[in-house]
Amino acid sequence: MITDPKSRPGTAGYAEAADLLAAQYESVSFDEVHREVLHLLPSRPGAVLDIGAGSGRDAAALAALGHRTVAVEPTAELRSLGQRIHAGRAIEWVDDALPELGVLRGRRERFDVVLVTAVWMHLDDRERGQAMRNVAELSAPDGQLFLTLRHGPVPAGRRMFDVSPDDTVRLARRHGLTPVHLGEREDLHGRSGVRWSHLVLRKDADSTSL
To answer: Which residues, other chains included, contact 53 with Cβ-Cβ below 8 Å and sequence gap of 6+?
Structure first.
């Protein structure tokens, strides 16, 4: 597990702005953020992993649906806020981070749903390759990865890359993940020039790439 914040450059700026960011995340609902892909969520409760869970908005919504939910958040300040905001939900909070996800991989669990919301753009090309391999390893056969990509201006003090959906799909295929949805939408917070790609990728049941 990486414990030095300097070793997690993608989290730059999040600790200092944790209160503001948590309020921003909680100002829109899980259903609003994921409206185009809600129909692809499992109808039966299963195991869900929310990577980069932030304030826990998505993890709380999924736990409320009966899913066994693990929320991974590397920024201690956000993790603490999430635990407080959603104290009534059955969420297991874990300190871990992409691309390694060493804690989760060490547990050797597999998840029916993996969410990576507003996180992937923090990884550079090398890190994305490592992260996709590890996310695929954590996905159960026929499990689904829900992933969003941010496009547009980079806020001051943040580390972000403009990652194309096509490149993401090509990388996913190399690790046994097949696209089942690809869409684009506006920014729910109305930020100028910002838009989002939404991808859902399914783990091939007979994948041997891992």
So the answer is: 59, 71, 72, 73, 79, 82, 93
pTM of the model: 0.90
Q: What is the CATH number of the domain that holds 101?
A: 3.40.50.150
Q: Which residues pair with 111 in a beta bridge?
A: 139
The yes-or-no verdict on residue 8 having pLDDT over 70 is: no
CB 116 within 8 A of CB 139: no
Q: Sort strands 47-51 and 68-72 into parallel, antiparallel or unpaired.
A: parallel
Residue 178 included in any domain:
yes
To the nearest whole number, what is the mean pLDDT of the chain? Answer: 91
**Total domains present in the chain:** 1
Query: Domain residues for 95?
Result: 10-203
